[in-house]
Design goal:
Helix content is 38%, strand content 16%. The protein has 428 residues and is α/β, with parallel strands linked by helices. Helix 2 packs antiparallel against helix 10 and helix 4 packs parallel to helix 5. The chain is globular, with a radius of gyration of 22 Å.
């Protein structure tokens, strides 16, 4: 891994937030006269200088299309691109780099499974089980399949504390279940789902398990074997990498059995005017020119996180989340949503301020340089379950600090005061 002079790439590197922050120049920026406090990491993370340098290096020194040329630049680009599969394989504990498919994002990865696996192997009456806390990307494709093929879509409900009702899950996952499509970590609430336990239930009935790891992969140690996953989907841009790069991991035998998702260049073995045959996996699922520079830079992002150690990343965010939960709970008018135990959630704190729309909260915080998300977070069923239109969401990452949580609290207090709210806080 390319490193800064601060030695972040060293295996002996200790988790030092101030040292990490020096790799993120944007954190020095002023917004509306205040030093930026970036707390919208669940939407997209910032990129370290190492990742930005790698993008520049590729386009400066090795820019070429891959898998198509015998000239030096094409060979270099191909080797660098293919080398990232091994980095991804190691990062998620997959058996083989050939099981790593590059896509544009988590949404495309889930849709690939819906189109190439589910349409080939599911029929009317088969059941797909999701949960009430899914991102829309893990709801809509299955609704479309239901309307097209007559599958039955069932869901595991959310309890009042933002966790899933595991008793209902045990009753819902049954003999007709063919796929459990489940998030590992809620983007709206931060809830960490016991996927391993649910996967055991699904496998006991012969079902497959798709894990949406868009929020989990940047923040938690991931091992596909321990999770019991058959498919795993995540994105580069939430874990220090570029936008436009996603990953689908699937068991090799499933990829072999699945038909292609898109037709075109590089996914073929032979083409005539009357018929075609397909390339070997994973290339069968990567039609057309990919985001070569983005994938290569994603490899540098993985190197960065591996050097930090994901266990340390998780420990840092758990401490920060616990501090934020206790701090915001003291703000008049604040209602916290989701589990209050930081061991049960990732680095996401979703909250409401009584009498103030979350968009107004977000705008006032932005005027003080604090960047959060306000909205339904592509999780409208969660909002419907909570009985609210939206929430304000602060989400943390490796470069965030307790001082920034203090800045968040102060800005929320000022917002409450601005809108004239003074009673004591409530917690839900």
């Amino acid at each position: 891994m390319t490193t800064s002079g601060d030695g972040v790439g060293s295996s002996a590197y200790a988790f030092d937030v101030e040292r990490i922050r020096r790799d993120f120049p944007v954190l020095k920026r002023e917004v509306n006269g205040h030093t930026l406090v970036y707390l919208d990491n669940a939407a997209t993370s910032q990129r370290p200088v190492q990742v930005m340098a790698e993008i520049t290096r590729f386009y400066r020194d090795s820019n070429a299309n891959i898998h198509r040329g015998v000239h030096t630049l094409s060979v270099e680009a191909t080797d660098q691109y293919e080398g990232v599969r091994e980095k991804v394989r190691s990062f998620i504990g997959a058996p083989s780099a050939s099981e790593i498919v590059f896509t544009r994002n988590t949404t495309e990865s889930i849709n690939l499974v819906a189109h190439a696996w589910a349409r080939a192997f599911l029929e009317a009456g088969d059941e797909v089980v999701i949960s009430e806390i899914e991102h829309h990307s893990n709801i809509v494709p299955w609704q479309m399949l239901r309307d097209e093929r007559g599958i039955v879509l069932r869901h595991i409900p959310m309890l009042d504390d933002g966790t899933l009702d595991l008793d209902v899950a045990r009753a819902t996952i049954g003999p007709r279940t063919k796929l459990l499509a489940i998030t590992l970590m809620s983007n709206a609430l931060g809830t960490i789902v016991p996927v391993g336990e649910l996967a055991d239930l699904a496998h006991a009935h012969g079902a497959r398990v798709l894990v949406d790891a868009a929020q989990a992969a940047p923040h938690l140690p991931i091992d596909v074997g321990e999770l019991g996953a058959d498919f795993l989907a995540f994105s580069a841009h939430k874990m220090l990498g570029p936008t436009g790069v996603g990953v689908l991991w699937a068991r090799g035998e499933l990829l072999e059995a699945m038909p292609p998702f898109l037709g075109g260049g590089d996914m073929i073995a032979t083409v005539s005017l009357t018929e075609s045959t397909w390339n070997e996996v994973p290339h069968k699922f990567e039609a057309g020119t990919p985001n070569v520079g983005g994938v290569i830079a994603f490899g540098t992002a993985i190197d960065y996180l591996q050097a930090l150690d994901m266990e340390r990343v998780r420990a840092h965010e758990r401490e920060l989340t616990g501090y934020a939960l206790s701090t915001l709970a003291r703000v008049p008018g604040v209602t916290l949503h989701g589990p209050l135990d930081p061991n049960l959630r990732g680095g996401v704190v979703s909250f409401s301020l009584e009498g103030v729309h979350p968009h107004d909260v977000g705008q006032v915080l932005d005027s003080r340089g604090v960047a959060i998300r306000a909205g339904h977070h592509c999780a409208q069923p969660v909002m419907q379950r909570l009985g609210i239109p939206a929430t304000a969401r602060a989400s943390f990452y490796i470069y965030n600090t307790r001082d920034e949580v203090d800045a968040l609290e102060e800005a929320v207090r000022e917002t409450a005061s601005y809108f004239g709210f003074t009673p004591g806080a409530t917690v839900a």
